[in-house]
Amino acid sequence: DTAVSQTPKYLVTQMGNDKSIKCEQNLGHDTMYWYKQDSKKFLKIMFSYNNKELIINETVPNRFSPKSPDKAHLNLHINSLELGDSAVYFCASSQMGRAYEQYFGPGTRLTVT
Amino acid sequence: DAKTTQPTSMDCAEGRAANLPCNHSTISGNEYVYWYRQIHSQGPQYIIHGLKNNETNEMASLIITEDRKSSTLILPHATLRDTAVYYCIVRVEYGNKLVFGAGTILRVKS
Prior knowledge:
- The complex is a heterodimer.
- By secondary structure, chain A is mainly β.
- Chain A is about 0% helix and about 55% strand.
- In chain A, a hairpin with a 5-residue loop joins strand 4 and strand 5 (about 45-50).
- Chain B is mainly beta.
- In chain B, about 0% of the residues lie in helices and about 45% in strands.
- Chain B is built from no helices and nine strands.
- The mean pLDDT of chain B is about 95.
- At the A-B interface, strand 5 and strand 10 of A face strand 3 and strand 4 of B.
């Protein structure tokens, strides 16, 4: 009964490829997020969706495109992968009004070679 | 959101209380203090938050100074499983995002 799940857990791919990471939450939350944690371990928000609408879009290359088919899912598609995209990507969710209490997934470690 | 300052790392003996300080001298009146932790190879986990009163839950206690310029997260009986990076975050209650700093690496040792 995993609360926030991500697939895949590990992703190794070559530069220039396009890849997707999927996220699902079964908590009934209406807000979902994508974070990136780089090699220096800094965790930075990338996007946030509330009820399938984009509410946070940090300065992220437009090669990154989030898609929310419904409130329980927020997928991250990355085009033309670059070496600098290598990182751990975390999905999270929260209830609107309680954005301070976010539930994080286990992370997806993306390695671009 | 106000800036926070935390020690880079701390050690604690298993079974003893772990006291993690956070300085937030520029905190404004409508900003709360939130604590998260990240155990190795896992996503961050919410611990506790407070405005000005001390708070306690099943995981930890949060002590906020009267002037609100600093706070301390207390794990009353630290275990090896509490080894993690602990993040102190200051933000308004209904803000849309969390801004994580470098945090404090807490090592609980037997």
